[in-house]
Specification:
Layout lengths: L3 H13 L21 E5 L2 E4 L4 E4 L14 H11 L10 H13 L5 E5 L2 H16 L4 E4 L12 E2 L6 E2 L1 E2 L6 H4 L2 E4 L4 H8 L6 E4 L15 H11 L3 E5 L12 H5 L5 E4 L10 E5 L1 H4 L18 H14 L4 H23 L4 E5 L2 E5 L8 H4 L4 H13 L2 E2 L8 E2 L6 H17 L1
Parallel strand pairs: 3-16, 5-9, 5-10, 10-11, 11-12
Antiparallel strand pairs: 1-2, 2-3, 4-13, 6-8, 7-9, 12-13, 14-15, 15-17
Helix pairs in contact: 2-10, 3-10, 6-7, 11-14
Bound molecules: ligand KE4.
């Protein structure tokens, strides 16, 4: 594929932007090669600056579950924009949206809008600390919740130990209040909450940031019981799973109601909107009602709310999630069968409309087992599929995303490319 225009743009970008990208994963560092610069998208397709066409399974990392440039979403944005783009004042649109979120997300009795998933999780943790007056928080090893300092913390040595800074610039003082446990390991959580007071545990109810790794049967229910027993605020980070694994998110799919929920991605319909919410008594702590401060210039931005509202309206239509399940199953089961045919060890995972193929002959139930995947082989797979016009998530440790715009013909095109690529590995 000729990507000379993208190459030129990347050279210019690197002179003006760190790494040439506005978010690290876009630089393709873990898969090799230079990233195509995307010019436009329509439905499940995107085109790069050289006019190459790709079937897109990233969808802006989840938001574009309806497909790119959906006419009704564009129309809703245009209509809102004609009335002005932002006021920094309350609007009727935000009330309608808040009422809708509280109606469809089981844990949300009250909700505050922000502009990114990072803000949502950072704020939810501050509120949980303010509500419980406790300092310690627990996160999952390999879980990602945005780039708030207290969440850029890696697992120390051994299980359930004090966190260590996961990024330069994060202080020991911050990291020491974040404890890190393996995913799907209830005993590790139990060991901590029975030992010391903990404000909150934050989990992706289906992990997506180590690749797609589902909860083991019973794990979330047991986590719910344990946290309730010890007064630990259970936060579901549904920035990725919200409206993707079910309309009401993973909490609706698995029937587990957390104390707080973070939303992002789909909820903004492709524009910057996110939210955090939960039990009314917890949300009562937030300024101006309570002592926990949180604010944002563009929170509840009318354009983003219009895009989010229209997206949720369209997703709430009957049959949506059956279609997403069927399309995802066709793709993932198809690739799994092709990998077996080609004699390539692949552990494929899927929940709703998110999925991953781990290039490993073992099973993957946590970050340690995910990291046993052959990332070199993943890179070859990724580049082979890209050159055949299939745009996958550029990392073994990311999830892929299905949209309502991926029809059978595009999935068949993807499976044809997969057959050829797997054979070439
Ligand atoms: P943002 O601040 O990027 O809007 O959201 C952070 C976030 C929070 N929680 C979960 C579960 C998330 O997956 C994310 C962001 N996801 C990444 C993809 N793994 C966004 C892509 C990127 O970082 O460029």
């Amino acid at each position: 594929m000729n990507r000379s225009r993208s190459k030129e743009l990347f050279e210019r970008a690197r002179r003006a932007i760190p790494g040439g990208v506005n978010s690290p994963v876009r630089a393709f560092r873990s898969v090799g090669g230079d990233p195509p610069f995307i010019a436009r998208g329509k439905g499940a397709l995107i085109w790069d600056a050289d006019g190459n066409e790709y079937v897109d399974y990233v969808g802006s990392w989840g938001p574009l579950i309806l497909g790119h440039a959906h006419p009704e979403v564009l129309e809703a944005i245009a209509r809102a924009a004609a009335c002005g783009t932002s006021f920094g004042a309350p609007t009727e649109r935000e009330v309608d949206f808040a009422e809708r979120l509280c109606r469809v997300v089981p844990s949300m009795q009250k909700v505050r809008m922000v502009s990114s998933g990072t803000e949502a999780t950072m704020a939810a943790l501050r509120v949980a600390r303010g509500f419980t007056r406790r300092d310690k928080i627990i996160k999952i090893d390999g879980g990602y919740h945005g780039h708030a300092d207290c969440l850029l913390v890696d697992a120390g040595s051994g299980v359930a130990t004090l966190g260590i800074p996961g990024s330069a610039g994060v202080t020991e003082g911050t990291a020491k209040d974040t404890l890190v446990v393996p995913w799907n390991d209830l005993a590790a959580v139990q060991q901590i909450v029975e030992r010391e007071p903990v404000a909150a545990i934050i989990v992706e109810p289906v992990c997506g940031n180590m690749g797609c790794v589902p909860p083991k049967p019973g794990y979330l229910a047991a986590l719910r019981q344990l946290t309730a027993k010890h007064g630990v605020v259970l936060i579901f980070d549904e920035v990725m799973t919200g409206f993707r694994v079910a309309f009401g998110g993973a909490q609706a799919r698995f029937g587990i109601t957390p104390d707080m929920t973070c939303l992002g991605k789909v909820v903004g319909g492709g524009l910057p909107a996110a939210a955090y919410g939960g039990r009314a008594e917890i949300m009562a702590c937030i300024a101006p009602d309570g002592p926990v401060y949180q604010a944002g210039t563009l929170s509840g931005n009318p354009l983003a709310v219009a895009a989010g509202q229209k997206t949720l309206e369209l997703l709430e239509r009957p049959g949506t999630y059956e279609r997403l399940e069927a399309a995802s199953a066709k793709l993932v089961d198809g690739i799994g069968a092709l990998a077996r045919e080609a004699g390539i060890p692949l552990f494929a995972t899927r929940v709703g409309a998110m999925f991953t193929g781990f290039f490993t002959d073992g099973e993957v139930w946590d970050y340690a087992s995910a990291k046993r995947s052959d990332t070199k082989r993943f890179g070859a797979w990724f580049r082979g599929m890209l050159d055949r016009g299939i745009y996958l998530a550029p990392s073994q440790f990311e999830a892929g995303f299905m949209s309502l715009a991926h029809d059978d013909a595009l999935i068949d095109r993807t499976l044809d490319a997969a057959r050829a690529t797997l054979r070439s590995l």
